[in-house]
Amino acid sequence: MKEQLTPRERVRMALNHQATDRVPMDLGGTFISTLTLGAYENLKRYLGETERISIDKPVRVINKWGQTIRPDEEILVRLHIDTRSIYSKAPRRWRDYDYQNSTFVDEWGVLRQRSDPGPYFYYDVIGNPLANATGIEDLERFRWPDGTDLGRIEGLREEAEYLYHNTSYALVGNLMGVDIFEICWFVRGFEQFFMDLALNPEFAHALMRKITDIQKQKFELYLGAVGEFLDVIVILDDVATQRGLMISPNTYKTMIMPYHRELISFIKERTPAKLLFHSCGAVVDMLDQLIDVGIDIIQPVQVSALGMDTQQLKTRFGEKVTFWGGVDTQHVLSKGTVGEVREEVEHRISDLGLNGGYVFGAVHNIQFDVPPINIVTMYDHAREFSLEMNK
Amino acid sequence: MFAILKGAVINGDRQKTTEITETLINQGSKAMEIFQNGLIPAMDIVGKKMKNNEFFIPEVLISARAMQGAMEILRPLIVESGIKPIGKVVIGTVKGDLHDIGKNLVIMLLEGAGFQVIDLGIDVSAENFIKKIVEEEADILALSAMLSTTMQQMKVVIQTLEQASLRSKVKVMIGGAPLTKSYAEMISADGYATDANEAVLLARQFIQANSMIKELGA
């Protein structure tokens, strides 16, 4: 059994809702479909021991607070991954300030701390720079990140051009830190911002306006450098939790949707790439609106969340949106047997993979408690099963 | 008037809530009356709407905020009148865990239901939980955790209670994203709640059970 399409052809066709030789597969293509440091170290060790794949290079961490990494080429080739990412770099004029007790401040002024001194946990938000803001004047006085910092795109054009002309992988654009809604919670405080939405909509709008303007500046530079080479461009903004939406569809429509629409239009004017939208949780009740606002792909398809039945999702939305992700990380990958992983793989590919419209991967980043054998089984079986299915 | 008060809380109108509360007090209503006929039914409805996906996070938070406005007026009056709360709860997020949004929602609904809640915040050691339970003679200990790693601390807290011969003095309930009923059973907690609404129901059950036991002279 062998592939007939190149990875780029496979991903493009799937995103255009056409059947392919096998399901396209992603690992590390986006910053929310990769592995955390701990999971990656375990995987490397495992492949080193079982298949003598040896990687001597230092691990590349792409996101400090989530401790996520960029997988090495050897691993991606071994697992037959179809996507490769173009990650933005750090801005020149900002370095995250590290304090004692595993604490740091990021470019938005948000204070984060790791509760466990070990390397395998997220840094949680513990301080919000605009928590005490009382009005729009405070937004004017605030020290915002510089959206025009060229450090973010240093060397990226060359990187994208090289991958575009010299490889046949599908290229995914990952500009870090471009959320809008989420950044509002981080800078203002989660409870405070959700109350702002209800009690002080003018302030909430002013905050989102400011953030949107900065994100547009970042995208202007980033897409100016690499937009023409991309197959997928990623944006992120959580709107749901495990059990439901965080805000009503109406609140989304009046408060957040205008900014998403504006950002997505702005992006699509600058790249032919398909728009991947990340939101964790039970997003099913928001999908119509998200499709309306211009998303082409919904990720991660958190199957453990309420109402996220992959068969129903495909039936209702399969023609209008591509699903990206789908393999359960909360239960199956972390605690399941190898047999259960195979079953999960077959379940999701069967539910989501008909006539394209599906890119296979784990729901969200693979955490350190996922046994490496489960990761390898997941991708190997997906390849085998879907090649067989499409023969 | 109670109906209007109820409406003001449900709509998250803190100003109206406090105004009506003041008016009712001035007209001679008892604090406990206002609390039980106006505020508790309001938070009950908020809890139900949350469960039915009618109310989302903003709506629940502003209702709780409105209720807190009324509580600031009523709490000192209730204490003055000598009326006891339905029960006393010590609550906190366990050691190593910094998450508290869910816990804070539980506190609001518990207070709305008539409980006195002592919030120890986040990253609370077993020793600090125990100290507070003893100091306050609490009926219920409520533990919150958001990580599958920190939830192990809940076992430690229960063991520490046992070692101090205090386990039978307090009902322990647990909640948080990684928790399950079977985990609660495994660590011999008295109960597990999937959301803030259930937490209130569970707390009420505990108090009822306690008073039944007292009545039977056990």
Question: Could you please describe the fold and organization of this structure?
Answer:
The complex is a heterodimer of chains A (391) and B (218). By secondary structure, chain A is of the alpha/beta class. In chain A, 42% of the residues lie in helices and 15% in strands. Chain A is built from 14 helices and 16 strands. In chain A, the strands form four sheets. In chain A, strands 4-9-10-13-14-15-16 form a seven-stranded parallel β-sheet. A four-stranded antiparallel β-sheet of chain A has the order 5-6-7-8, with no helix packed on it. In chain A, strands 1-3-2 form a three-stranded antiparallel β-sheet. In chain A, α2 packs across α14, α7 crosses α8 and α13 crosses α14. Chain A starts with 6 loop residues before the first helix and ends with a helix. By secondary structure, chain B is an alpha/beta fold. Chain B has nine helices and five strands. Chain B has a five-stranded parallel β-sheet, with helices on both faces. Chain B is globular and about 50 Å long. At the A-B interface, α7 and β12 of A face α4 of B.
Draw up the topology in text.
The complex is a heterodimer of chains A (391) and B (218).
Chain A: H1 7-15, E1 35-36, H2 37-51, E2 60-63, E3 68-70, H3 73-78, E4 83-87, E5 97-99, E6 103-105, E7 111-113, E8 124-127, H4 136-141, H5 156-166, E9 170-174, H6 181-188, H7 190-199, H8 201-226, E10 232-236, E11 240-241, E12 244-245, H9 249-268, E13 274-278, H10 287-293, E14 297-299, H11 310-317, E15 322-327, H12 329-335, H13 338-352, E16 358-362, H14 372-389
Helix pairs in contact in A: 2-14, 6-7, 7-8, 8-9, 13-14
Chain B: H1 2-10, H2 14-26, H3 31-51, H4 57-81, E1 88-93, H5 101-112, E2 116-119, H6 126-136, E3 140-144, H7 152-163, E4 171-175, H8 181-186, E5 191-192, H9 196-215
Parallel strand pairs in B: 1-2, 1-3, 3-4, 4-5
